[in-house]
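User: Can you predict the 3D structure for this chain?
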Amino acid sequence: MFTSPRWTEHNEENNLTVVKEFFLLGFQGSQCFRISLFCLLLVVYCGTICGNLLIITLVSTSKNLHTPMYFFISQLSISDLLLTTNIVPNMLHVLLNEGATISFAGCITQFCCFGAMEASECFLLTVMSYDRYVAICNPLRYTSIMTSAYCMKLTIISWLLGFAITLLDTISISILSFCGSNIIDHFFCDILALLEIASSDTFMVQIESFVLSVPAIFIPTSIIIFSYTNIVLVILRIPSNTSRQKAFSTCSSHLTVVSIFYWTIFSVYVVPTKNQTMTISKVLSLLYTVFTPMINPIIYSFRNKDIKKAACNIIHQFVT
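Assistant: Here is the predicted structure, written as structure tokens:
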């Protein structure tokens, strides 16, 4: 239905039709539904851009926020900005046009950027849990351990690991053969959707993706669980209720973000249900590609006195 001669190139020698462009279906439905969804996602996208830019600006300009925790929060905001900018504008185009084409190179590039941001976010959230672990479980040595140089090293390693792991997956997918259908039943170039329409055997790519998920997902998850197990044990041993609440409040925002992020990731990629339809998969994908990047700055802003104070100071400076 959607395949046309301009999207494919005929290979006379092998008698195969090599796909040069893909057609993203996005969310199919009535025009009213698509326009409503477009408006909702546009508002969410604008809110995401404004919220994360605000976090980055506050952390970089306010001296009170020049601490390891806020530095990692600003890095998380950068990751969320890049992720949504990579996915949402093209998704809005797909929604308005009831589907749209994307070149093979564009599709692979989008997947690479998406994977790198997601993997980097996994590592950044892990580093943030380690920061909270040191702050609560070893407070006397916190400043000597979490130095500016050490925080910078952890951040660089998180970004490099995210890109390196995704690059391996990207290379494997780019050399697959796509000679049949060029229709991707998704709103972006996700690995599961690409493997579904690949003409060549995808077994080795699936094995590679599973192996790479160990350092990208399972190891970070284990470190986060270990960190928060020790944090909870230390907090429970604090005699004062006020001190316990104060200690827990310093990591509750991060724990909320981690829970939302990993729940959606595991639902889509690790343990998808047998009866999970493509529509459910798309909705879950919307959570971690569109809504979670908007929720993150809200959680850190409304539940953090330092960020609210810094924001009020900047507003006061502009007013006066």
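The longest helix spans residues 104-137. Residues 1-15 have pLDDT under 50 and may be disordered.
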